[in-house]
Amino acid sequence: LKGRPPPPLEQPDLEEAVPFSRQISPKCRLVDCSSPSPTCADTPDVTRLEFSEFRRKAAVLANEYFTEPDTKGMVASIRAMGCPSYHDELAALLLRTALDRGESERRSVVGLLALMEAEGLMSNAQLVRGFEKLVLAWDDIQLDVPDAPGLLVAFLSTKVGLLHKSLFARLPEELLQRLCRDMASSEARDILQSHLRDLSTFKQELSQHLQEDLFSRRSVDDFASWLRSAGKPAYHHEVVAGAGRAA
């Protein structure tokens, strides 16, 4: 309703107008696919600082920002460091630090990252990579932040507007299982349980088709035919992971 404050960031907002397995978006890419991938022949990006020095200075800036939020000053300081190619690490640092803070600090970081993206200081792919770094370390983060699974999922809410909700389908199954156990009975929990069942079924079928189509009959066409008929493009990262493990 108009005038109603947005939901707290610690409350996962699971909306499933379209099944998560079918949700894909260019706003969940890890790299900018509009340009060719770099090779050894490409000149590395020029930065003013070494990576270790950048991380040290970024941590100082982050602590100052959480002590006394000054979004414009923070943006100016980040720009002055002259290290745009490291900004995925900056996104990870800011989001990770925000997990230890309260609701107002988390919202402040969301606003800061959105402004950086709007001003061209951070690409959407860098923002996604920063978020993915936290997702990959969620079990370690949870030791310090017990509700980390819910907080990470909350960043994907359409009401927050920071990251595209199609990233939800790429979250680790174990993270979602933990979140499901922690949630009270609700429509959101029912949606999450449905997604977990769908993901589990897909992974079981994937394992079967990898073994039968690829490794036994060595038929790429048969495997591709099954994958197309499954119609779940958001799970295709599981194909890469499953094939790598099985090989």
From TrEMBL:
Ranges of residues in domain MI: 53-175
SMART domains (alphabetical): MA3
Gene3D superfamilies: 1.25.40.180
SUPFAM superfamilies: ARM repeat
InterPro entries: ARM-type_fold, Initiation_fac_eIF4g_MI, PDCD4
Gene Ontology cellular-component terms listed: cytoplasm
Top-level taxon: Eukaryota
UniProt keyword terms in alphabetical order: Cytoplasm, Nucleus, Repeat
Compartment list: Cytoplasm
Main location: cytoplasm
Entry's family note: Belongs to the PDCD4 family.
Protein name: MI domain-containing protein
